[in-house]
Amino acid sequence: MNIYDIAKEAGVSISTVSRVLNNKSNVMPATREKVQAVLDKHSYTPNAIARGLVARSMKTVAVLTVDVRVPHYARTTYIIERAFSKLNYHVLVCNTGGELEEARRYARLLAERQVDGIVLVGSIFNKLGQDEEVAACLHNIPVVSANGQPGLPNGYSVLVDDVQGIELAVEHLAQKGRQNIVYVKDLDTDSAQLKQQGFYTAMQKRGVKNAKNRVIKAEYGLAGGEEAAAQIVALRPDAVVCAEDLTAVGVMKGIINAGLKVPEDIAVIGYNNSEYSVICTPELTTVDNKVEMSALFSVQLLESLIEKDESFSSMSIQPELVVRQSS
Amino acid sequence: MNIYDIAKEAGVSISTVSRVLNNKSNVMPATREKVQAVLDKHSYTPNAIARGLVARSMKTVAVLTVDVRVPHYARTTYIIERAFSKLNYHVLVCNTGGELEEARRYARLLAERQVDGIVLVGSIFNKLGQDEEVAACLHNIPVVSANGQPGLPNGYSVLVDDVQGIELAVEHLAQKGRQNIVYVKDLDTDSAQLKQQGFYTAMQKRGVKNAKNRVIKAEYGLAGGEEAAAQIVALRPDAVVCAEDLTAVGVMKGIINAGLKVPEDIAVIGYNNSEYSVICTPELTTVDNKVEMSALFSVQLLESLIEKDESFSSMSIQPELVVRQSS
DNA sequence: CTGTTAGCGCTTTCAT
DNA sequence: ATGAAAGCGCTAACAG
Question: Which of A207, A300, B40, B308 has the smallest count of CB within 10 Å of its CB?
Answer without folding.
Answer: A207
